[in-house]
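Lecture notes, structural biology module. Today: joint structure prediction for complexes of two components.
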Amino acid sequence: MNSTRDIEALIEMMARLPGLGPRSARRAVLHLIRKRELLLTPLADQMQRVAATARECVNCGNLGTTELCDICTAEKRANGQICVVEDVADLWAMERGGVFKGRYHVLGGTLSALDQIGPEQLRIPRLVARLTEEGVNEVILAVGATVDGQTTAHYIADQLEGRVRLTSLAQGVPIGGELDYLDDGTISAALNARKEI
Amino acid sequence: MNSTRDIEALIEMMARLPGLGPRSARRAVLHLIRKRELLLTPLADQMQRVAATARECVNCGNLGTTELCDICTAEKRANGQICVVEDVADLWAMERGGVFKGRYHVLGGTLSALDQIGPEQLRIPRLVARLTEEGVNEVILAVGATVDGQTTAHYIADQLEGRVRLTSLAQGVPIGGELDYLDDGTISAALNARKEI
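The predicted structure, tokenised, for the full assembly:
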């Protein structure tokens, strides 16, 4: 009966993705249908492949297609540093920075009594176990500067205290940032952490 | 070797969609992987289905999964009116408006000497043939108010002149539009087409 039902269903599914709405989903679907061989079929195939193979690294929680992720299997990344992040997106952001050469530990969220997310859900026992297993000497807490993020950071710091060097990312003015556009908290933090030139 | 290669490839493909960039593609892919059963697999299946079945209506150029689209097969839409639009997206926009009860003719672009798009590529001969085949008495030229759109409209008007009533969409202030935000051309057009209250 309705010959556009399949196309409409696809638009509705695309519109549910973060960052897309009904209008951009319609544009994206039309674009995909126009470039069917070049875009739509390969994209569908790739989604099937990722749906079938993507999994979390059993050691650090990073996303990959193997039991242990590339970073956990890379010998040269066992430099005694573990960077604790909330999310795989944060791990990717750190990797794009290209400065950190150690390993990661992906919490997969923050502690939250309301959502019943406790230390086990965030792989914190696994993090504690890694300290001895991997000979870790520094844990960098790179969690968000939110209330939940800082609560989680304090809990982890309590668990690890005295066993390892604990650090956090510096707070201050972003590179290329204009003072006029910064919030008051960032300006205060940058002033408090000012450095000799 | 690189266990995130498949995921990265998927992000790159998503980032090529209109309206998405690298950052939003990463967010979308992480979201899809987290809701694998609920979103990723169904979306991939639906894309396969659309890639296999989507086609243009042989009569009007609308998208669907059948030789003739729903609108061309609906008897009650044969009211003697054809609305000529550039694109399927424009047809969808007209349908959302819900006022037009006739049929459509989707050009699939505008005349362009540079891109070698002539009347045949835009289904204009098919439009001319439909006038007698479907007993059309009015053609509404609902093409964009761009130079290319208006050139195309003039060409079509030349072809159909004297055979059918030719109209175009009214130009003026959009519903809910504030004068302060309108361009000068729209304000002039609205003033010239002013109506008695």
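Point to remember: The mean pLDDT of chain B is 91.
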